Amino acid sequence: MGSSITVIRAIEDKFVPLLQGCRSVIELKPIHAQVLRFGLNQSNFLATKMVDICDINGDIDYAASIFRQVLKPNVFLYNAMVRTYSHNGLFNQAISLYKQMPREKEEPISPDKFTFPFILKACAGLLILDLGKQIHSHICKLGPDQNTYIENALMDMYTKCGSIASAQQVFDEMREKDVVSWNALITGYARLGNMNSATRLFNQMLEKTIVSWTAMITGYTNAGRSADALKIFREMQLTETKPDYISILSILPACAQLGALEAGQWIHSFADKNGLLEKTCICNALIEMYAKCGSIEKANQVFNEMLIRDVISWTIMISGLASHGRAQEAINLYVNMKNEGIKPNSITYLGVLSACVHGGLVVEGLKLFESMTKEHCIDPEVEHYGCIVDLYGRSGFLDEALQFVQRMPIKPDATIWGSLLSACRTHGNARIAMVAMERLLELEPKETGNYVLISNIYANEGRWDDVSRVRKLMRRKKLQKTPGCSSIEVNNVVTEFVVGDDSHPELDKMYEMLGVLAHQLKKEEEPSLTELALYEFLEAANA
Hints:
Mean pLDDT: 86
CATH class of the domain at 199-308: Mainly Alpha
Low-confidence stretches: 526-532, 534-543
CATH topology of the domain at 199-308: Serine Threonine Protein Phosphatase 5, Tetratricopeptide repeat
Strand content: under 5%
Structural class: mainly alpha
Helix content: over 70%
């Protein structure tokens, strides 16, 4: 018996260099055939090696067939198969295999420290917190054998499942923390928008990696704190940490939100020098940044120079042209997109319908809206219906807009009624405005902007008693306008302004310039608007 085992192991060892040099499943198959010819189809050792090769090449089906051929798989083969499923996003299959381990008929298999990280990844991928907790309990029962790799996987699972307190507890109880541990918890707080806790941890880190910096940049951007995201990006540069493509993708939306064109241009130059423009996702982010920063020609240049364009590239460019009032160019680009065989999606249609809205192209817009379902089987969402309402409203077809809203197969939201109300103000239609206002008060009884809109409609018609009634209603409900906010980039520095904030050191000079502008506007604006502004000033003074 002992001699036969020695012979089998000797034969197995001869396959090791063959398998180590194997780079594809095509190369693996003849080796597998030789394994079968030598009667080694029950070798857990060789099966594990072959499953690993399938994992690297993403051939899950072939890996599964190898696994099924082994009648008595051991923990190493199970781990290899669980890892393969987890690596390739087949989380349900990974969990099923994990649950099968203790049910093996011949000999139950106990998961070990190499099983847990991959099954925890599956729990995180499926957001199954309860199973993740059960696995955590199982890990604790094993005693002190757990390692940092497992604890990091636990933290990742807890943060992705939204249990940040449990992740913090794991972190606090760790005997040894590596940079991955810190990054996992920071990313968890950044993902939930808790930037104060993320910043506290980040500042405690002795060794910051590109992952750490990127987590902070992404967190600030997603939380709408774009100025902070740009600040942390510049701090990263001072440490001579080289941005990677993920950090570039994280900071470009912040530049777009702030209108930080100079910073965006530097990032573009950096991406060009480091070969990152070959990545379609980077070019897409640059196009969006330039478009939102007002540099549509630069956006168009990036688009034209792209090596590979996907539907996102076309959609962003179409939307950019639409937002800059270049409606016909946006529609032409949409036609070119279809001619190149790129199928539009629902977001593409939002862009091209928006172009029709900005260009007042009612007929074209209605045809495009109809083509969504007829040509591409895309069901319109509330945003698409909103575009048509806006299209009718801006063009003065208010009765048609109201009829369209009333015939909608889905319930109109506040945005649609608000769009109709805004159009009523533009075209002075108090009758339909009241219909829209009634619906808005049902949906958003505390939204100040709706009251302001109807007040302005009354003011445009000189109905000052009604204006006063609306303003008194606002005061009775204790409604206040949300302070306006704007930002500007000068000399690569972004400055934000909020209504009522008097902390800026050059405030007096600003007010002096605003006075000049206001005087000039008084000469040029409509009398009704001047009258309304005066009325609002008197109202505020007497409040």
